[in-house]
Write a structure and sequence with these properties.
Blueprint (H helix, E strand, L loop, with lengths): L2 H10 L3 H8 L3 H8 L7 H10 L4 H4 L6 H4 L10
């Protein structure tokens, strides 16, 4: 269960189906994300964070930063 997400929803007074509607995903998908069975795509996580006026890291602190995973390292010349 994503406790951070649940707390943020409670603080905003939102039910899962209301948040799902705001984000544009199904209630089933929202349930899977809230229960921790899925994390959702980076875009969905960002939309959820915006709807809850939170940072993605506040809601999913254990996930890696997607942007850093896609950074290509340049080879060091002359090393």
């Amino acid at each position: 269960m994503n406790v951070n997400l649940k707390i943020a929803m409670l603080m905003r007074g939102l039910k899962q189906y209301e948040l799902a509607n705001r984000v544009g995903i199904s209630e089933l998908e929202m349930t899977k994300i809230a229960t921790g069975r899925k994390h959702g795509t980076p875009e969905v996580r960002a939309a959820i964070a915006r709807a809850l006026k939170k940072n993605v890291r506040e809601l999913w602190p254990k996930l890696t930063d997607e942007r850093s995973e896609h950074v290509r390292r340049r080879p060091i010349h002359g090393a």
